[in-house]
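Justification of computing resources. Each target in the renewal requires a structure prediction run like the one illustrated here; the chain below, 154 residues long, is used simply to show the kind of job we budget for.
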Amino acid sequence: MSENAGGRIGTVAALVRSTFLVNAVYANSARGHGLTQQQGQLLCVLMAQPYGMSELGAVLGLAKASLTGLVDRSERNGLVRRTPDPEDLRAVRVSLTRQGAKLADEFYAETCRRVEELTSGLAPSERDTLAALLGRVVTDNKVPTVFQEPDATR
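Resulting structure tokens:
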């Protein structure tokens, strides 16, 4: 059982269960926009800048074959484009198309709204504390930036 005697959830269970919660919100938001969860992640990552395939694979944590399939499907759907890398003509950079950027903005805004609702029962000071603590966990573990703070993308 994940709860300890006082009915409180321990750190490990809380982090794991919150991951499932956020992933479910993310997946539902993606479905609502006609995307898979991985396509949603790809669009959010590319909002910041174009990436080379190897960089993109590292940020998304995908093997080369999985990433290639994801980019292929997204390209066929008109969401991303591959262009030659000006620094390495054997490589390509992946960026959002106009259609992809519009969908990314819509998906991102909706996902931020839904994730923000998860903490609606907390006081502002509690949300600040939660953000500070989770931010330290993320920073200490050098988690790649796969989702920008809402104000950082504008």
